[in-house]
Amino acid sequence: MPWTATVEVRTRTPELAEWIERSLRPEAAREVPRARANLRRIPEGLAVQISARDSGAMRAALNTYLGWVHLSIETARTASRPSRPRSDSPE
């Protein structure tokens, strides 16, 4: 494939990198139209390498994977917050 890009996702902890990788692994196993992705751990986090057949496929794959990375990070951030009682719940 003539188009390639690598996005490095640097995380504060190896656990977060592992969590993101586990979240993306099922998606990377599927082929996004005209593109494919490879995930690998790096010392600072996770690398997502994307190969695409054309520029449109590269743009779509990058947008898709960056969105999934963002969603994974925000989910981890929300899950790690201490829970607070909801204001509408009875005490």
Give keywords:
91 residues, alpha+beta, TATA-Binding Protein, three-stranded antiparallel sheet, elongated, 46% helix, 26% strand, 3 strands, single chain
General description of the model:
The protein has helices at residues 14-29, 55-80; strands spanning 3-10, 35-42, 45-52. By secondary structure, it is α+β, with helices and mostly antiparallel strands. The protein has one domain (3-77): 2-Layer Sandwich (TATA-Binding Protein), CATH 3.30.310.50. The chain has a three-stranded antiparallel sheet with strand order 1-3-2. Helix 1 (14-29) crosses helix 2. The model has no long low-confidence stretch (mean pLDDT 89).
Radius of gyration: 16 Å
Q: What structural category characterises the helix and strand content? A: alpha+beta
CATH architecture: 2-Layer Sandwich
Q: Uncertain regions: pLDDT < 50 for 5+ in a row?
A: none
Order of the strands making up the biggest sheet: 1-3-2
Series of H and E elements: EHEEH
CATH class: Alpha Beta
Specify the oligomeric state: single chain
Mean pLDDT: 89
- Report the portion of residues in β strands: 25-35%
Largest sheet: 3 strands, antiparallel
**Rough shape?**
elongated
Distance between the termini: 59 Å
Query: Helicity level, as a percent range?
Result: 40-55%
Q: How many strand units?
A: 3
CATH superfamily: Alpha-D-phosphohexomutase, C-terminal domain
Whole-number total of structural domains: 1
Number of helices: 2
Please name the CATH topology.
TATA-Binding Protein
